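Hi D.,

Good news: the full-assembly prediction came through. Inputs first.
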Amino acid sequence: MAKATFEVPVLSQYPDVPAVTPGTMAGSAPFLSKPEFQAPLGFPGELVENWQERAIEKMGELLTRYRSLRVYMDACVKCGACTDKCHYFLGTKDPKNMPVGRQDLMRKVYRRYFTLAGRLFPNLVGAQDLTREVLDEWYSYFHQCSQCRRCSVFCPYGIDTAEISMAAREIMDCIGVGQKYCNEIIAKVYRVGNNLGLPGPALVDTLEGLEEDVFDETGVRVRYPIDEVGAEILMVTPSADFFAEPHVDGLIGYGKVFHEAGVSWTFSSYASEAANFGMFIGSYENMHRLSQRIREEAIRLKVKRIVFGECGHAWRVGYSFLNTLAGPWDFLDPRYPVPQHICEFTHDLILQGRLKFDKTQNDDKVLTFHDSCNVARASRMGDTPGGQFEIPRAIIRATCNHFYDMDEETIRDRTFCCGGGGGLLTDDLIELRVKGAKPRMEALNNVMQEKGVTHMAAICAICKSQFTKVLPFYGMEMDQIVSLHQLVSNAIVLTPGADDGDEDDDDDGATDSALTPGDEDDDAAD
Amino acid sequence: MPFLTGLYAFLFYFAALVLVSGLTYKVVQYSRTPAPLRIPTTPAPTTSSGVVLRMTREVVLFESLFRANKWTWIFGWLFHFGLFLVTLRHLRYFLNPVPAVIEFIQPFGIYAGFAMVVGLVGLWARRFLVDRVRYISSPGDHLMLALLLLIAASGLLMSFLLHTDIVSVKTFFLGLYHFDLRPLPADPVLLLHIALVAVLMIIFPYSKLLHAPGLFFSPTRNQVDDSRERRLVAPWASRFERP
Ligand code: SF4
Ligand code: SF4
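Then the structure:
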């Protein structure tokens, strides 16, 4: 079990709602963004002189920009329906992590400056001046929201705390109080092209290495192209896919699927990042600038289609906002939606019977599936509502023999966040991340006990990174989390290309390649 | 007596003015505020008729609340449904002639008053008994419940124990339409009842009662899931468009 300087929650079999324990997470706050990460995003480097005035002004501006914020500030009746729905409250017991508790941090300021009742009778309606203490509270608790929207499912008015957290973060950024992790990453995308700061040549190297690995393992030349002008598909994926485990196994799977589909495709070294952290900080402008990179590359590489890899919030931005932020996309092939998700792509091929799988290759695993929040509650796949739940499960069933869902209350649109979304995937917030993962860990643990589940598949880079880190705190193994396309990659039966045989002759590993994939399959089946 | 009548006439003119102008202001404000990005909570309908159905289920059945918490749903729904029937029943004091539906609803409307009380008491009890709900309740939330409960209780009192002269009451309200002030019975329970209703009307546009119009404007509920097919650009965001 990983070492922790805090108390790791004990998993229980039945969901229990903790008693409200104020202040347990008051001390949790991420590192402040330094001026050099603030400037490229268009924010002041540090807390500005007249910050209070500027913050109120910004809030007023956002209230006229976003209907969601305006309505959500007014509509809450304090019914309490959302109070036990946030994984951070369930894991930390801190009432300011109840969605309504979190919203109220902003609502009390809204009431004070923007409503008659709050101006006249502040105490009666819980209105409060924007003081330094309130600002500090905002910084702590609006960075304890993973913007997972679980609360919005249950609120009778659809109040979405994610929208409020985003607005709060934008206000704080505009007065110079930014969060390091998000802003540093966005600055890195502007400078280098992706979250991890991997330069073009490193990507080329990595992909060449992968081609060799896949060839050695399968005897089939699967291509992992980058910056190829004229390819049909531009593949945009979270940069974690390029090298980290288990992400890269998913990326290997994408290549194999494209290989079997027989389409030309390419990554881009300039648009080498699907993630769009502009959303986490609520900044339309930064979200727009990040999205534009994909458009520029689609034009430069003359592609006809855009496909997104496994990343939850990237898919939300892609599915819901890309058309608005970087469209219109009339220069692409109109027969395909823009963008498409890799799961939609793979699933279509499965439906057409164009992929062959040997499911026994995944027989060492008993699987469950983690619905990622941004996919589940903020986007769709396919053309019917709920396709985002069915399509990934259909792919798992096509590639694996053993699959069990977790408890109904914890999946699909009621799914529990991994605990690391929304720009919180940083070591300075590890206590929050571990505690916030508790509800998901409980559901996983139950299905492990009851069904013998060994692995959990996910289609989000943040989920995968978060679980890799957090599972050991709960006494589980970090490699229990796998990419969905890793399962595809394991089971897919590749068709050798025309020149695969020739290359074998002058290859050192001739003995390896004498073992055709067919033989291997037979062995495994025996 | 004329003083009381005058006072109440003024109170109701004022309350009606505040309610109508305040609500209009809010509705116009909500509808003029852009919703620049599609943010429906999915799975969401992909057509407008689907959205109408989703909203209808929210308004009539409180679908999300039902999924969230059964106790809150039972009490909340009892209260609102009771209030709905009671309001319909009261239309007979404001309409002449009284439509047949309203006639028909009268007996149900009376018992709906009890449903209201049960709902309100249940909701209020939760504010004391459930620690999470206690934590988020402000004095305003308790006052609101007290106000509604007093209105309901005084109404029931008049229906069952201390009957008032409802013919005069109706004459008073119908008279208000033509600025023709007719005497209001100086019945304390009645005066309390309608004064509190006027207070409710006055605070409506400034309080959490805005959840009523707010629901219809909630983007997570009223948006169609069609973002890959339809492009939206909010007026303020058009400056980010390429030249
Ligand atoms: S969006 Fe998610 S993390 Fe944020 S308050 Fe709601 S449930 Fe909690
Ligand atoms: S469920 Fe909605 S209305 Fe009820 S307390 Fe939570 S945010 Fe407020």
